[in-house]
Amino acid sequence: MTRTFILWCFACFSVLGLASCGGGGSSSSSAPTNSSAVFVNNTSSKNYFPNTVGSTWTYVLATSQSAPRTYSVTSSLGNNQYNMQVLFSDGTSETYLYQINDPIVDIIQYTYYDANGSAYKTVTCNPPFPWKLIHPSPGASYSRTYTCTSTVLSTNTTSSNTNTKTINVIGYETVSTPYGTFVNALKHSYQYNSDVIPGYTWDVSGIGKVKETFDSSSTTPNSTDYEITSYKTN
Question: Cα separation of 73 and 47, whole Å?
């Protein structure tokens, strides 16, 4: 499992919060006209994973403000299962089937699509891939070993990989993004047993992930930062 996959997982998006998971209370927002706007985290709600169908989040590279990627909750399947789509700037996309199992959000399966919308690879994880903590608090930690099987659809060939992901909740920080400045964003680290350098996300209760930093290679680190530019929760 590569760090690129983690960035794509939002996360919700690793990537996120509403007042209630599973279609409960919600809010709506679009990018402010003044990027210096300040948002104070509603830490009392302690819910960092938005989960309403139609909600969207867009991120860009911090260094160039380019390469946008948009995450959208597209459907609810019942039994706390949902679909999310990730649309990239080159027209390719991915879809994720995830399930809410408090305190963790699990990814069961994801599918890759080319720019024409044709699926070319699926990945199924059993046990599921641990994605995001729903109600994180500083000092919390979560770890799971999982196995994901990839299937190339054109040839029906498969390969499997077993890994362990560990999530640690570090504490609150203030972070600035093109959307604005977020006070008391909750910082997480995530790391795989094959990685030397952890990745980091900053999540805001009632919004979700507002920033992520990761290294594209554990042997030749090349830091990549994504920051939020807009979001909408229904």
Answer: 17
Contact criterion met (CB below 8 Å) for 215 and 222: yes
Shortest CA distance to 188 belongs to which of 178, 174, 202?
A: 202
Residue in the block written with tokens 């000092």: 139
Asked if 209 contacts 15 with a C-beta cutoff of 8 angstroms, the reply is yes
Measured CA to CA, the distance from residue 171 to residue 229 in angstroms comes to: 23
Fold adopted by 3-232: YmcC-like fold (2.40.360)
pLDDT of 223 reads: 73
pLDDT at 32: 43
Give CA 64 to chain center in angstroms: 21
For the chain of 234 residues, list the mean pLDDT of each consecutive stretch of 10.
Answer: 40 32 37 51 65 92 93 94 96 96 92 98 96 88 96 97 96 90 91 87 89 76 84 80
Domain boundary assignment for the chain: 3-232
